[in-house]
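tool=predict chain=A
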Amino acid sequence: MSESTLSKAQVRSLWLKSQGLHESNHFGRGPKATVKAIKHLGYVQIDTISVIERCHHHILYSRIPDYKKSHLQQAQSKDKTVFEYWTHALAYIATDDFKYFMNDMKRRKRNPSDWYSSVTEADVKKVVALVKKQGALSIRDVNDEVLVDKDHPWASRKPSKKALQCAFNGGDLVIGERQGMLKKYELTDRHFGWTKRPKAASAAEVFEYDIDRALRSQGLISVESASYMKKVAHKKEILKCLEARVRKGVLIPVKVEGVEKVQFWMEPSHLDEGIGDANDLTHILSPFDPLVIQRKRFNMFFDYDHRFEAYLPKEKRKYGYFTLPVIIGDQAVAVLDLKTDRQKQKLLIQQWSWLGKHKSPGNKKLIEQELQRFEKFQLAKE
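tool=predict ok
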C-alpha cells in the first residue's frame, strides 16, 4: 500500500482526538466514564507524588469534567472493572484486559527482580496464606514480625512488604482497595469472584493487543510508541505485526513532514473520515499524562521537550519542582509549577513559564480560567 504523508498539525489533531482531549465529555459522565476512559487509553499511570492531586486522578479529570476520586474507587473496589498492574509503570487497567498481563505475572513470579532477592518462596506463600485466612490486608495489618533496618528510602522495616509485593507481581494477590496510597491486598480470584481464572493471552495476542491499544489512544503510531519501555525483542515482534497488517490492508504506512528516520502507521479510516483541525480547549496536564509521558513523541509533535525536575537539585531546575505542561488547542504554550496548600485551601502558582512566542493576554486569560476549574478539583472534598 502506498505511503501517506501527514503534517505535524494533522498528527496533533489526530492524537488529541485519540486521547479524548478534543471535547469536554468524550467519555461521558459519572462513574462509567472512568472505566470507559481507562479502557480506551489502555492504562492510567499511578504515582505517589502529591504536591497536587495524584496523577491518576489528574489524568482522568483532564478527560472527564465531573470526575470524582470516588469513581475510581468504585471501579476498583466495588465494580471491580479496573485493576492495578505494571505497564511501563504501575497503572490502572481495565479488568477486561487482565489476560494480556498474565504471562508477565508468570514471568515475574518465576524471576523476581533483584529488588526482591531477600524474599523466599516460603515468604510469599506465608503472606498469601495470611490473606486467605484473614481477608484483605495492608502492610499495616501485619504486626507479628521482627522489624529490620531499611536498605533503601522506599523500603519498609517490615519484611512482609516485599513478600506482599512479590505475590502481587506474580498474580496471586491483587490490590483490591486503596486507602489514600495505602494498598490492601486480596486473593486475586476471590477479589474478582473467579472460580476459574481467564485463559492467558498468547504472546502473539499480546503483541496485537499492544498495537490495538496504541492505535486507539494515539491514532498514529510507531514501533516505539506501541511498545514504550519494552525490550528490543518485543519491538521486533511489534514491527512484524505492523508489516503484516499493512499487507492485509488494515494499516497504511505514514511519513510525517519534518520528522526523519521514523516510520509511522495508522488506520486508513482516518484519511477517509478526514482528520480535521484541533479544538481550542485548554488543558493543564499531568507530567504523567498519556499525551506527555512519551517525552520524545511529545517533543516530536508539540515541539516541547518536557522536563520532570522533581528529582533534580533546586539550583538545576529550569521550570520548577512539579511542572505541568499547558496546551491550548494543539499548542504547548506554558509550563506551570503548582502546589496545593490544602490547609489554606489554595492552589499556589510557584512559577509560570511561557513557551516560545505563546505569551499573550488572550492565552493568559484562558489559562487563568482553567486554573479556577483546576483549583476546585484540587480542593474538592468527597
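The CA atoms of residues 34 and 147 lie 39 Å apart. The chain has a mean pLDDT of 93.
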